[in-house]
Design goal:
about 625 residues, mainly alpha, 32 helices, elongated, TERB1, ARM-type_fold, TERB1 protein, ARM-like
């Protein structure tokens, strides 16, 4: 029975005062029973065992008994909150201070004393207050600075060194003094050792040193703008960025290095959270690109990915340099991939945070560009302003072309009616020829007529959607006859051409019209479509080519004198140099006389020539049929 065992062990402690080894064995048995057993710890407190061990630790003359008693106290306090409240007094903190400052105390006894302080302040605001008011925290900070020597910082196996174990316990205790709950007063006191912590990080990158220091730094600066600013002012953020850079550039990049880089990342995040303006310090170390590399590591857990993405979000929240670096290193697609592929809610929230920063960044950059256009202070800004004004001119020209298209629609109203009449007459004549001539292969005859329907397709690398073919599919011969549903043809054309052109093709066509009659009608319509597409092609390609040539002009101006610039201008495309006076009437003449046409204007000229050829062939065919 647990209660019986504890009663017997307590009696053993009381009656074995002259036998330290027996007392040590009894203490070891007690903490093995009470460890992670709140009920046993509470019962031991009720029978007076907790206070007896406390007195034994202070009064015993044997070091091994003191060490065992302090460790047992720590185990019981950690297992039961009522035991913590019972022993959390200023008197106990003062007794522990005596153990720490006594020159006769060994390293192990000091470590047990620090352990008791740790469990007293953990999740205990009163304990955090006592550790500050009694001056215990100042003593802990002194141990943090003086416990490790230079040689001990570079130990390959730090766990075998008792001084390192004491120093590690001190780091953990300081973390509990400032966090959970957050204690700003203790944070302000602990920042006094930041210069020493910075020096340790600069001189050693061993995981056993970097990990405890980063944990201490991260909890001390968390949600405390004063401490954050102080840490940045002494170059602490620069040091963390350098440590991360060194870890990421490690040729082996072992698993331990990856995990340590995540720890450093969390510390960086704590330094700039709620104070994102500090993130500008990280821009010169390209921290965002390093974090993106770290994020691509396959060994990371979901929680580690969340920490990295949040750090990226805080780095890019207000810093334009970090925002640009995120985009340049394909950070945006990576965030979208995380958002779409992950099922973890926290990871999705973190990725959404970064994407929201990207949205704000776009808006801010747009506003900045607008402000710069109002305050031209350099030649480069002046050039940007000129380019913007040119774009505005081309948009005005686009409106003019749209107005011209509308006029063409009105002018072709009469031609549309004539085209219907012409189509009907041609259809009848072609039908007579088909029946009277009785060609040997009617299928080839229909295919030849079908081939004639297809109008030239204008293609462009600039915008394949805008310069869509005017006719996407040729009419197919019906199995039961050579007729086609005119409504389906119009529906197909409406899906493949602009609205303004579609309206021109809503004329009624007799359903009894055979495929050959439809050919003549569609020739007239395809010619109109080609003309309108020519205007659209002319506008967009001319706009793109003008911008391209304007860049060439700037390079010529920067490398040549004025006289040589005129010579270079003679070798440029006439369509690019003509400017606004160039219109659809003078376009062909200007380009035909040019010996140095650019690729875009060459394609446009060839398209117009094909269009004119279609019109001539259509006119010749109509005249021959009428004859």
């Amino acid at each position: 029975d647990m209660k019986t065992d504890l009663n017997l062990l307590l009696e053993c402690l009381k009656y074995q005062m002259d036998c330290p080894l027996s007392q040590k064995e009894a203490l070891i048995t007690i903490y093995s029973i009470c460890q992670q057993n709140s009920e046993a710890s509470e019962y031991f407190r009720e029978i007076g065992g907790l206070m007896f061990i406390n007195d034994l630790a202070k009064s015993s003359a044997h070091c091994i008994v003191k060490e065992a008693a302090l460790f047992t106290l720590g185990i019981i306090i950690e297992s039961n909150v009522y035991c913590q409240q019972t022993l959390c007094t200023s008197a106990l903190f003062e007794d522990l201070i005596l153990f720490l400052i006594n020159k006769d105390s060994g390293v192990n006894l000091k470590r047990m004393s620090v352990y008791v302080i740790l469990v007293l302040v953990s999740n205990n605001k009163n304990g955090q207050t006592y550790v500050r008011d009694t001056g215990c925290i100042s003593l802990l900070l002194q141990l943090f600075r003086t416990t490790l020597s230079t040689s001990e910082k570079n130990l390959s196996d730090e766990n075998t060194d008792p001084c390192y174990e004491l120093w590690s316990s001190v780091c953990s205790t300081l973390c509990a003094c400032v966090n959970n709950p957050q204690n700003e007063d203790n944070q302000n006191i602990c920042c006094s050792v930041f210069p020493y912590a910075k020096e340790c990080l600069e001189s050693c990158t061993e995981p056993g040193i970097v990990r405890p220091i980063c944990s201490f730094l991260g909890l001390t600066v968390a949600n405390n703008s004063y401490v954050q600013k102080y840490f940045v002012s002494i170059g602490g953020l620069d040091t963390l960025a350098k440590v991360l850079l060194e870890l990421m550039h490690d040729s082996s990049l072992s698993l331990s290095s990856v995990k340590l880089a995540v720890v450093v990342t969390k510390t960086l995040d704590a330094c700039i959270t709620n104070n994102s303006a500090m993130g500008v310090v990280l821009a010169k170390y390209h921290t965002v690109s390093e974090l993106l590399k770290l994020l691509s590591n396959e060994t990371l857990s979901t929680g580690e990915k969340v920490s990295i993405i949040l750090t990226i979000g805080h780095c890019t929240e207000v810093c334009e340099e970090n925002q640009c670096e995120l985009l340049q290193n394909n950070g945006l697609p990576l965030m979208i991939q995380v958002l779409t592929e992950s099922q973890d809610e926290e990871l999705i929230k973190a990725a959404t945070f970064v994407l929201q920063n990207c949205k704000q960044m776009t808006e801010q950059l747009s506003l900045k560009l607008y402000d710069n256009s109002l305050n031209v202070n350099s030649a480069e800004e002046l050039d940007m302003q000129v380019r913007k004004s040119c774009l505005q001119d081309y948009w005005k020209k686009a409106e003019e072309i749209l107005h011209r298209i509308n006029l063409l629609e009105k002018e072709h109203d009469e031609e549309r009616v004539q085209g219907e009449i012409l189509g009907s007459s041609v259809a009848n004549s072609e039908a007579l020829k088909f029946h009277d001539g009785n060609p040997a292969n009617p299928k080839k005859y229909a295919e030849r007529a079908q081939k004639d329907v297809c109008c030239p397709q204008l293609t462009s690398k600039l915008n394949s959607q805008v310069l869509a073919p005017s006719v996407t599919s040729a009419p197919k011969k019906n199995e039961t006859g050579n007729t086609m549903d005119a409504a389906s043809i119009r529906q197909t054309e409406q899906r493949s051409i602009p609205r303004s052109v579609t309206e021109l093709q809503t004329a009624s066509v007799p359903q009894s019209l055979n495929i050959n009659g439809k050919i003549a009608c569609e020739k007239n319509q395809s010619g109109l479509q080609a003309g309108l597409h020519f205007l659209v092609t002319f506008f967009f390609l001319h706009l793109d080519q003008h911008l391209l040539c304007s860049e060439k002009t700037e390079r010529v101006k920067s490398t040549s004198v004025t006289s040589s610039s005129h010579k270079m201008a003679d070798l440029r495309c006439s369509g690019c140099t003509a400017g606004l006076p160039l219109n659809s009437k003078t376009f062909t003449k200007v380009l035909q006389s040019c010996l140095h046409r650019c690729e875009h204007h060459r394609v446009i000229l060839e398209a117009e020539e094909r269009y004119r050829g279609e019109l001539l062939r259509a006119a010749a065919g109509n005249s021959s049929r009428s004859a």
